[in-house]
Amino acid sequence: MTLIPRTRSFQPPAHAPGYKSTVARSPSRALISGPATATEQTGPVFGHEVLGEHDNNLILNYTGQPAIGERIIVHGRVLDEFARPISGALVEVWQANAGGRYRHKKDNYLAPLDPNFGGCGRTITGEDGSYEFLTVRPGAYPWPNGGNDWRPMHIHFSLFGASFGQRLISQMYFEGDPLIARCPIVNTIPDQAAIDRLIAPLDMTRALPLDCLAYKFDIVLRGSRQTMFENRMEGL
C-alpha cells in the first residue's frame, strides 16, 4: 500500500532566532540517519494493566480532592494517514495548572501551586481510536524568551506506539486564544494549516450542562493530514 506523502513544508526550521532556545540547540552539522534497532522497535513495552481508575481524570488523580479551575473535557481520536483508528495506544498528557504554573521545582512563576493538581494523566485509546481526559483549563504563563513573551494555554501530548522507543510528542492549543498567534514557538511553524491542526475547537456536543466545556483534538500520525510533532517532525 502506498503511503500518503508527508507535507514537508509544514516543518519548522531547526534554527529559528525568534525562539531563542533553538539557537543553541540547532545542529551545526548535517544530520545522520541511522536504522532503528530491534530493541527500539520491540521493547521495552508498557503494561496496559498498570493504569489506575482516575489516571485520565486530572481533576482528581493527584490527591482525590478536586483541583481548582475551569473544568473541561479534552477528547478525540488517534488515526493513521487513511483515517483508520489506532487502538491500544498509550496517550499521556501534562500541563500547567489553572494559574499557569507547573508542578516542577524549576518553575518559579508567581502563580500559586494548586495542592490538589498534579498536572499529568494517561489513558489507552479504545477500539475506535478514541481517548478522553477530564482536566482544568491550563493558564497562560510568561517565559524568558523575549521582553514579554507568553505561552498560550496548552496541553502537552505524548503518544507511544508498540514500545517506548516509538514516541511522538505534540502540544494542543485552544480555539480563540489570542496568544497563539503571538507565540514564538508556534511561529516557527511555517504553514498556518499545520498550526490549525494543533488548535482544538470547542465541541459543545460533548460539553456537560452546568459542568464543563469540551474540546476535540484528533491526532493523525502520518500523511497529508498529519499532526505536527516536536520530537519526530515527520511522524512514525
TrEMBL record:
The keyword Disulfide bond does not apply. Residues 42-223 form the Intradiol ring-cleavage dioxygenases domain. GO terms for molecular function: ferric iron binding; protocatechuate 3,4-dioxygenase activity. Signal peptide: none annotated. Residues 5-35 form the Protocatechuate 3,4-dioxygenase beta subunit N-terminal domain. Belongs to the intradiol ring-cleavage dioxygenase family. PANTHER family: DIOXYGENASE, PUTATIVE (AFU_ORTHOLOGUE AFUA_2G02910)-RELATED, INTRADIOL RING-CLEAVAGE DIOXYGENASES DOMAIN-CONTAINING PROTEIN. This is Protocatechuate 3,4-dioxygenase subunit beta. It comes from Pseudooceanicola lipolyticus.
